[in-house]
TrEMBL record:
It comes from Zasmidium cellare ATCC 36951. Keywords: Chromosome, Methyltransferase, Nucleus, S-adenosyl-L-methionine, Transferase. InterPro entries: AWS_dom (IPR006560), Post-SET_dom (IPR003616), SET2_Histone-Lys_MeTrsfase (IPR050777), SET_dom (IPR001214), SET_dom_sf (IPR046341). Residues 427-543 form the SET domain. Residues 110-133, 171-199, 600-609, 721-731 have a biased composition (Basic and acidic residues). Residues 281-291, 666-678 have a biased composition (Basic residues). One of its GO terms (molecular function) is histone methyltransferase activity. GO terms for biological process: methylation. SMART domains: PostSET (SM00508), SET (SM00317). This is SET domain-containing protein. The keyword Protein biosynthesis does not apply. Residues 26-44 have a biased composition (Low complexity).
């Protein structure tokens, strides 16, 4: 070799071949035989391997060292001079290049080219020879033209496939063989579909041909362009072949060897599609299996898969509504939820009374027996053609030859197994309270269409007993739990299983059916055609006869609701029912009108009492109490703020009385105490009656009186005004009076006792306890003197007030005496409150009694 050639520098390299264009043509051709590794295209000048391959290697270098010098970085990259490469590889049978630009022989040794006779290679060979019409003749004497090169495509494809097969190894080949066996195909008799797939696999868009875009104006042979679908299928097939086996688990054999355990079923090509309940086709199939089911159309045959579906596609196909899994949702009874009372649970039917006799005597149907064939693996036996199923018998060991695992007509056995487990998921239902329909049953798991949910158990009674119970025991009940079992026999679920709580719906999701289990009829609730989702309320159509004339309104809320519980009526029945209802409606209207008239009369009577009258109110009503307190407060504030009150207060402070008051002042008349008292009381009565008549002025006067009283009370505690009054107006001593000594000592007390404006009432109030019972807002006071003598406790209403006035005088007399004696005592009262005329009257007269308070005025 010329050493000059060997001294290839980076600079030279970059100029001679931008993009790592390395001239390896003649050298590679020469060396390829003795140095197979040279077939790996060199990638860059720094690649020592490339240098060697281009004969720039010193021949003296020991060949054994070559592998050691090959670095990791010396890997091929993706830029080649394709023309050169193809020429360089001319001596080989074929050259192939895939999309990444790698030569096939970088993966597979040339020496193995002969082993290309893999099944896939054969297959491709066949497919190519059969379907492709690629012109492979070139004009004689001409240099290999483009089209000639095109003729080698076939070989290249074969090479590629062969190499792939060889690379993937025995396992893949075995798989392909197995797949072929499953499809029942020999090499020769492949289905047209498979051929098509293979063709598409070979030629698909973006497939082998597309990868071989050696020249822009490549003449594509005439064959149909692959569709999108076939392309997908082809890709799937390719993936099926090339994917490593990941399904299955390893298991150890007896001699400790690890062998793969293969799935017997799954998403494999050649198997039936799943009978998933959420799948419309399979649902129909199940419906068809049930006798008496509404849908009787023949279910379509399940399709056989020609290729394995990708998991993603099967998920998309079997889409269903999202439901929170049971263990997350678990709509179970919460603490505090209402539980049904009055329910005695029994899980097995009990024969009661004459039903037992009837049961024993009743003619039992001869036990039916089915002759269903053993089903194919993975299929359910005793389908819709099963004789037992048709006769409404459950299969069992006595009447069915199939193994329980093969038989699909053993719902009660299935239920028994589930109940034995005992968890709430296995039981699958629970009682819940509904809005308008009492209790109901809710699913706490999902149920397949037609799957048994629960048994309806209870007391089995005769028809006659049922009628008696209806008439006597249940006549006042709103809910009945009676269900006909067989002729003359009824299940009374009043004492029974949870199924008794299932409500009616005109669009139900369950159905109740009777099955004979070992010759014994039993009722059960089955999921309807759409299955049941977790959390759904279970309902079935009661479709019962009404006992009596009344029909219960239905609150199922379904779009097709009939409006009533019970079965749909025929025209005559509907007419009769409409007539009855019309009558009832008329009666109800008449009753309502009567009640309205009565109410109106009451209202009129009430209104006739006058506009201000709002009726007596209960005195212990907290609202009234609050209102009264508020009114009282407002009145007090108004009184304190009224200009008249202030004027009077000012005058009182100055020591002069208003002229009007002065005129009526008993002090001026200097009459006898009794007369003065009478005059004062009369005056108060007059004022109070004006107030009672709602006279605005009088109310103001009343305020004034009250203010005055307060003023006077202050006076009594030693104000200047009182002292003045005492000095100037002090009466002559009364030698005969038993109080004269006291009068002389204190003077003022007596003088002020009987005047409206006198301090009598206020002074008395000071000495006498006023009780204002908080719980009972009636205002009143137990009058007692210092000796503890009870003076008065009079209950008063407006009607007897006048009479009481008479008593009042006597009371006051006694009181007066008491007051004289106890004048010096410490005040023992709290400040009296003003709010109503009655209260004021009581204040001013000193008469305290249990008074019923009112809003406004009494009539
Ligand atoms: C067999 S019981 C069902 C359980 C019942 N809800 C309970 O609380 O016991 C039948 C009674 O439930 C009530 N009911 C059931 N479904 C109803 C519906 N759709 N509308 C109104 N009431 C219903 C009626 O009172 C009926 O007599």
């Amino acid at each position: 070799m010329a050493p000059a050639t060997a001294l290839l520098t980076r600079a030279e390299s970059s100029t001679s071949s931008i993009g790592s264009h390395i001239d390896v043509g003649p050298l590679a051709a020469d060396d390829s035989a003795d140095e197979p590794s040279a077939s790996t295209p060199p990638t860059s000048v720094s690649d020592s391997r490339s240098m060697n391959s281009s004969k720039a290697v010193d021949d003296s270098a020991p060949p054994a060292e070559e592998p050691a010098r090959r670095t990791r970085r010396a890997r091929p990259t993706s830029s080649y001079n394709l023309k050169q490469l193809s020429t360089a590889q001319q001596p080989l049978t074929t050259t192939s290049r895939n999309a990444s630009g790698l030569s096939g022989r970088t993966l597979v040794d040339n020496a193995k080219d002969d082993e290309r006779d893999t099944p896939l290679g054969d297959k491709l060979d066949k497919a190519l020879n059969k379907d492709w019409e690629i012109p492979n003749e070139s004009p004689k004497g001409k240099l290999p033209s483009r089209i000639q090169r095109q003729s080698s495509i076939r070989d290249r494809v074969k090479n590629a496939a062969g190499k792939a097969g060889s690379v993937l190894g025995k396992r893949t080949r075995d798989m392909v063989e197995t797949g072929r066996r499953r499809l029942g195909m020999t090499k020769e008799e492949q289905s047209p579909q498979k051929n098509k797939l293979l063709k598409e696999l070979d030629l698909g868009k973006g497939g082998v041909l597309d990868e071989m875009d050696l020249e822009e104006d490549f003449a594509v042979p005439t064959f149909a362009r692959p569709t999108k679908r076939s392309k997908t299928e082809a890709k799937t097939a390719l993936r099926e072949i090339t994917q490593p086996m990941t399904i299955g688990q390893f298991q150890k054999t007896s001699d400790g060897k690890k062998v793969k355990k293969w799935q017997p079923a799954g998403l494999f090509a050649g198997q039936d599609e799943d009978a998933d309940p959420s799948h419309a086709g399979s649902r129909k199939k199940l419906q068809k299996k049930r006798p008496g089911s509404s849908t009787s159309e023949a279910a379509p045959e399940p399709k056989k898969r020609s290729v394995m579906p990708l998991p993603m596609f099967s998920y998309l196909d079997n889409s269903r509504d999202f439901v929170i899994p049971y263990d997350v949702f678990a709509p179970s009874w919460k603490k505090g939820d209402e539980k049904p009372k009055d329910w005695h649970k029994i899980n097995r039917n009990r024969l009661v009374g004459d039903a037992k006799e009837l049961w024993d005597r009743s003619e039992r149907l001869a036990q039916s027996a089915c002759v269903c064939p053993i089903p194919a693996k993975g299929e359910a036996g005793c389908d819709e053609t099963c004789l037992n199923r048709v006769m409404q018998y459950e299969c069992g060991k006595d009447n069915c030859n199939l193994d329980p695992s093969q038989c699909s007509n053993r719902p009660f056995a299935e239920l028994g197994e589930r109940i034995k487990k005992g968890g709430s998921f296995d039981i699958g239902v629970e009682v819940v309270k509904t809005d308008k329909r009492g209790f109901g049953i809710r699913a706490c798991r999902s149920f397949r269409p037609g799957q048994i949910i629960m048994e309806y158990t209870g007391e089995i009674i005769s028809e006659a007993e049922c009628q008696r119970r209806m008439r006597e025991d249940y006549k006042d009940k709103a809910c009945y739990y009676l269900m006909e079992l067989e002729r003359n026999l009824v299940i009374d679920g009043t004492r029974g299983s949870m199924a008794r709580f299932i409500n009616h719906s005109c669009d139900p999701n369950c159905e109740v059916r009777m099955l004979k289990v070992g010759g014994t009829p039993r009722m059960a609730v089955f999921a309807g055609d759409s299955g049941i989702m977790t959390g759904e309320e279970l309902t079935y159509d009661y479709n019962f006869d009404n006992f009596g004339e009344t029909r219960q309104p239905c609150y199922c809320g379904a779009g097709n609701c009939r409006g009533y519980l019970g079965k749909r009526l025929n025209a005559a029945e509907q007419k009769k029912m409409a007539k009855l209802e019309e009558e009832k409606r008329r009666e109800a209207a008449a009753l309502a009108a009567k009640a309205a008239a009565k109410e109106l009369a009451k209202k009129k009577e009430k209104d006739s009492r006058g506009s201000g009258w709002r009726g007596w109110v209960p005195v212990d009503d907290p609202e009234v109490k609050a209102k009264l307190r508020e009114q009282k407060k407002q009145a007090e504030e108004a009184a304190m703020n009224s200009s008249r009150a202030q004027r009077l207060a000012a005058r009182a402070r100055r020591g002069s009385m208003p002229a009007s008051e002065a005129k009526t002042s008993p002090m001026k008349k200097r009459s006898s105490p009794r007369r003065r008292k009478t005059a004062a009381v009369d005056e108060i009565k007059r004022r109070v009656s004006r107030v009672a008549d709602n006279d605005e002025d009088a109310i103001e006067d009343e305020d004034a009186i009250i203010v005055k009283k307060n003023t006077l009370r202050r006076t009594s505690t030693g104000s200047r005004f009182t002292e003045d009054l005492d000095m100037e107006k002090r009466p002559a001593s009364r030698p005969n009076s038993r109080h004269s000594a006291y009068n002389r000592a204190t003077g003022i007390v007596k003088r002020t006792t009987y005047s409206v404006k006198s301090a009598k009432s206020s002074m008395d109030l000071k000495r006498q306890p006023i009780t204002e019972d908080d719980d009972n807002i009636t205002l009143g006071k137990q009058i007692s003197n210092s000796n503890g003598r009870s003076m008065s406790k009079v209950s008063s209403t407006k009607e007897d007030e006048d009479e009481e006035d008479e008593d009042e005088m006597d009371v006051d007399d006694d009181e007066d005496e008491a007051s004289e004696e106890d004048d010096e005592e410490e005040p023992m009262i709290e400040k009296p409150k003003r709010n109503s005329s009655i209260f004021s009257l009581a204040n001013l007269t000193g008469k305290w009694k249990q008074t019923k308070l009112t809003f406004g005025k009494a009539p």
